[in-house]
Each structure stands twice: as C-alpha cells, then as structure tokens.
Amino acid sequence: MVDEQKAALKKAAGVSGGKDQCQVRLKGRERDYWMGSEIGMLGGYGFQGQVTAGDGSDKQGKMGAGYNNLRRKKKKQQCTVGREEEGSISNRPELAAFLLALRDTLIKELLLYLYDNRSLLKAVTRWIGEGGKATLVGAPDANILAAAIEILRKRIAAGSNLLGQSESTSRKTSE
Questions:
Q1: For residue 152, with 0-12 CB atoms within 10 Å meaning exposed, 13-18 middle and 19 or more buried, which class applies?
Q2: pLDDT digit string (tens) for 102-152?
Q3: pLDDT by residue (tens digit) across 61-117?
C-alpha cells in the first residue's frame, strides 16, 4: 500500500460522527452486491411500487419508530411512540413504523414493506378478512392497529396490494 492510501485509511478511521447514509447504487460492481442482498433477491429493486423498510426501537423505556422508503427521500420518517409512564411493549414501535409507512403511501400505490418483527405480521393478519367477528377490545396497541387496519381496508377496497417480508424468510403475504 502506498503512503497516500494509508493516510486516507487512517483519516477515515479517525472520523467521528453519526451514521453514514446508506446509498444504493445499482450500477457497476455495487449492483452485484445489492442484487445479492435479501431485498435484491426478492425483486425489491425492480418492484413497480413503493419499497419501504420499517423498524421500531425501545431504548430505556422510550419507544421510537421509523421507516425508509427506497424511492422517496423525506426528512421526517420517524416518531416517538407513547410515553415512559405507559411502559413499553415491544410490538408497539413496530406497529407505529408500519402505520407511518402506510400513511405515507397512496392508497392505490403498490407497497412492498420490509420488517424484522414476526409479531407485526401476526398482529395485522389476524384482523384481515375477519369482518364483524374481530374486535380490538383488550388488544394491546389497539389505537395503532385500528388506524392501520382502516388504511389496509381502504387499500383492499381499491384493489392495491401490500407485500410484506419478515425476518429473513422468503414468505410473502398479500392482502
């Protein structure tokens, strides 16, 4: 290695600050890398609708949720969920991230939603297609679920699809 390269590496290693922005480049060598990732193998980079990944977090009783949309770059894509005195439920931030993504996607747009929480899939699919038999009474996070279910109901009525991908599985769910 020449001295210039060593100096550049040393300088890069000493940089402090926040997280790097992920930049997906689908040209040249980087294309092979990205197409070999889970979203690449699922066809997410060629998907004709919105491709969104969501996640929630619970840090010392403070819950937050957020999502990233591959095609739309917005500044505000996260929110605080609940208050410390309410305690924290692990599924609440995941549901909130999902709801944020649904609210930011037009009803008639196709949506591929990527997430890492199997509980989200169970919480949402339990209510799809149940009609009048289902009730949210006593359900944890009923306020978030009710809002998400209403948007999903509108998406179903409009004939738009939602595909979900969870926890490194190749299983897809469709409304």
A1: buried
A2: 998 899 999 888 888 777 777 777 766 665 556 777 777 788 888 988 898
A3: 677 778 888 877 665 576 667 655 555 666 778 888 888 889 988 999 998 888 887
> Residue holding tokens 């290693």?
13
Burial class (CB in 10 A: 0-12, 13-18, 19+), 69: middle
Dist. CA 39–CA 47, nearest whole Å: 10
Nearest CA-CA partner of 139 in 149, 129, 131, 151: 149
Coil/strand/helix, residue 51: strand
pLDDT in tens, 25-36: 888 888 899 899
- CA dist 112 → 90, 109, 125, 142 (Å): 23, 10, 15, 24
User: C-alpha dihedral over 26, 30, 33, 37, to 10 degrees?
Assistant: -40
Give the whole-angstrom CA distance, residue 43 versus residue 49: 11
Which domains, from first to last, does the chain contain?
43-174 (3.30.420.10)
CB–CB of 64/80 below 8 Å? Answer: yes
The two tokens of residue 44 are: 């997410």
Task: Characterize the bridge pairing of strands 50-59 and 78-81.
Answer: unpaired
Fill in the DSSP letter of residue 63.
Answer: E
pLDDT for 169: 41
